[in-house]
Amino acid sequence: MANKNYYEILGVDKSASDDEIKSAYRRMAKKYHPDINKEAGAAEKFKDVNEAYEVLSDKTKRSNYDKYGDPNGGFFGGNSGGAGFGGFSQNGFSSSGFGGFDFDDIFNMFGGGFGGGSTTRSSSAVRGEDLQVQINLTFKEAVLGCKKDITITRQEQCSSCNGTGAKGGTEYTTCSTCKGTGIATYTENTLFGRMVRQGVCKDCNGTGKSIKVKCSECGGAGIKKVNKVISINIPAGIDNHQVITVRGSGNAGRRGGANGDLHIIVNIKDHKLLERDGYDLKIKIYVPFYTLIRGGEIDVPLADGYTTLKIPELTQSNTVFKIKGKGIKNLNGNVYGDLLVTIVAESPKTLSREDKKILDTLINSIPESSFARYKSYLKDLDSVK
Ligand SMILES: [Zn+2]
Ligand SMILES: [Zn+2]
Known about the structure:
By secondary structure, this protein is α+β, with helices and mostly antiparallel strands. The chain has ten helices and 15 strands. One zinc ion (ZN) binds at residues 175, 177-178, 182, 201, 203-204, 208.
């Protein structure tokens, strides 16, 4: 998705309130409505205005857009500098476009006084609401990826009436007010004077159907709340607080409207020893000071299992060993980060008299000149004294 500046499109500040955004949208939509503005490019601008409003009027999308420059949670792009992972989409639903836009608003605004003839059934369609759930993952599950079943409560189309709200899906007649179109004509006093407005039929709520006998399953609503288990593929490398969006898995749309989306917010439990830094893993390990001097081997944890690190003789404290490719998988490709191991010398807490004697022998046998950095420090110290 191109990085459009939605605030600029609507001509508002980044700090604009919901009301300011709404009124800016109305102003701009009026300006570029293709029925009013016949200039070249107006239709394109009208589309941009709608797209901007769709994002900025939605709390989640606006916050995603502010944070990541992508309303669909370029959550994955967020960490990797926006490397074109525009929203994670399962079930093969498209991640862009503004199919969810509720065109009711435009109809209400223009009261059908312009253009006319645009009375389509779809104007009464309502998109289902987006749903949000949290999911807890262990560090390992997040790094390696996993499959999770989550239970959500959502509105689905009632199956016993096929969403009609009428018993058996057949106990209805055509609405006499709108003759089945779902659109009725109302006269209203508006900003533009007295206007004839075409809108969703109030008698049938835009269904075009008059229910004779209500469906007992949904009480005539055509939708009902159900608990649903959804299997989610968690991609390897997902980071804390990232969001997986499953398109169309939110609440069911009404009257032919699209389903809402399901947003899954990921919470990852900290690892006891490993720390994540982008796609790298980090660990700081204290080893006995003599391991650094004499060399040795230590076990280092991985996200899954462990590996053995060889510490060469005469290693300095705070040396960082890079274990290549043992970090986290990049969400955008088959590339792995590294595991960075910092080795630090630990001195003993106590020494026996015997230990001290042995150490003294050692100290006396190693000339001070063996410590190049210390020697250089002493020289510099002399010069500043
Ligand atoms: Zn029903
Ligand atoms: Zn009707």
